[in-house]
């Protein structure tokens, strides 16, 4: 694409010209007719600032703990596992240098993400507020080094195991072994929890071990885990930004793209599952995990255990043989869950020691050095209690990150079967006289499979996170633990796309239908000094031509719009009606000053109606109709003849007020907009 005349010399000129309206558009009866028509459609117009964008700039120092940094970026959201993250600006750079970047942020965001990216595409990110002038990753790196240096550990001899208890699966195996039908009813007053066709003798020797209560220095050794209180200066806003973006919930910032059902994308959609089946791989240092969120209301019933094994021991085994081998491994208490801690926190570090590979007995101690051997696989499970029951009497089951170990419990009626996909669950419900016609019995669309994991693993910022699903909604954010030390990370390489901004025009203002698609432009920032402008759609019969001051020789400004698409005006609508041929956008790159925002660049663009002789620009005064608007986040413009207020129900509220918190462009009726090509 052709690079055009630099805007460095003409910035002030073009920014001034964008507010000089053509006199033949606004004088006399035309002005009254335009305003009356707009108010007939949209109601009384109050809005003075038609922008939905916050402009700003921030200095970014490329000193994140990464080798070979090649660029820095400003993003809308954390890019890890998040298809909604968009790049607002970027610059090439090397370690230790800094750059100040301009950004146009959709006004729905009050915080953004700065990122350093290395030559392998690995990201390290940090959250910052719109009021922040600088992002310095060095402070985070120094804090991490100080944290690692402060760890001292209890003596292995002070960590003593008590009597083991039988796991839920072992109890179930014993009960079904003695049942002629292999069906066991658990009488909890409602008969909602029972087991059917779940006999599996390979669980019979499954045992859970916990340390005996003791104290060693700062470390508390209890049956609920080995921990120390920590007082760290940690950037929890970034941890929150990473986790909230990775584990998005329906109804959040992106109501059409947000998801509460995360099982496929999170539990089975990243490299930790694809490569290691959600197992951690020990790096040979003591394993430390830190809870950072426990938003579940049932957290007090959760009990987290871990186990480990040498992968050489299972080499050559079939999947079933390996699963049976794991079932008999000892499982060790890591910690007890907490309830309703939805805010992100960091107050305890838990040590998960190595107890060797030998036969365990009551009174066994942790192995010297405490570290699980390098290369060992480390798995996790959640033993779910039930209200009014002790852990030993629990009826709700053990759920694993290894989905092969969940087949039995995923058949458990009530609490767990409800998360299974509708079609699969129907095979159980069909022949089940006790099944009730409600969500507890497997009506989840796009729900889990019977061998789906219930603990997910992902890495970000050189840390790994364990994400637990303790019930039935498949969102995997009931409990989140950070693996602070002791396991290898698997670096993801996100590839977020540039954020798009859309400019929509009406072409005949006194009779405008406000479908806002007579001309549709999209712009994105490619780098500090390059803006890509695309002509996307035209729902006009009139002859139209763009004017881009300072770029008179630009392709997009040199021809009539229909001529650019090689169609006859009045005969064809360009990308405004479904069921018709679509047209590829026509794009061109523009070289601009580094301190010029996308919004200000778009405000310079005018639309000349060659049929009427009128010129349309963005509105600039209070009460002026919105015949040209600029919208962030790859705005989906209305279909032909569909008024924008019908496609976006909050648009008129936005027009009729100066409230800056009305994010009207997120409240979309997808049936009334042209399909978004993003």
Short overview:
This protein is an alpha+beta fold.
Describe the fold and architecture.
With about 675 residues, the chain is α+β, with helices and mostly antiparallel strands. The chain is about 15% helix and about 25% strand. The chain has an 8-stranded antiparallel beta sheet with strand order 12-13-14-19-16-24-23-22. The chain is elongated. Mean pLDDT is about 85; it is low at about 1-30 and about 185-195.
Write the layout of secondary structure elements.
Blueprint (H helix, E strand, L loop, with lengths): L10 H7 L5 H4 L1 H15 L10 E9 L7 E7 L10 E7 L5 E9 L4 E8 L4 E7 L4 E3 H14 L14 E2 L1 H10 L5 E3 L8 E3 L10 E3 L4 E3 L2 E4 L2 E5 L6 H11 L16 H5 L3 H6 L3 E2 L5 E7 L8 E8 L9 H9 L3 E6 L11 E5 L24 E8 L13 E3 L21 H8 L25 E6 L2 E6 L10 E7 L11 E2 L2 E5 L13 E9 L2 E8 L6 E4 L7 H4 L2 H4 L21 E6 L6 H6 L2 E4 L4 E3 L11 E5 L11 H4 L3 H5 L23
Parallel strand pairs: 1-7, 3-25, 11-18
Antiparallel strand pairs: 1-4, 2-3, 2-5, 5-6, 8-11, 9-10, 12-13, 13-14, 14-19, 15-20, 16-19, 16-24, 17-18, 17-20, 20-21, 22-23, 23-24, 26-27, 26-33, 27-28, 28-30, 29-31, 31-32
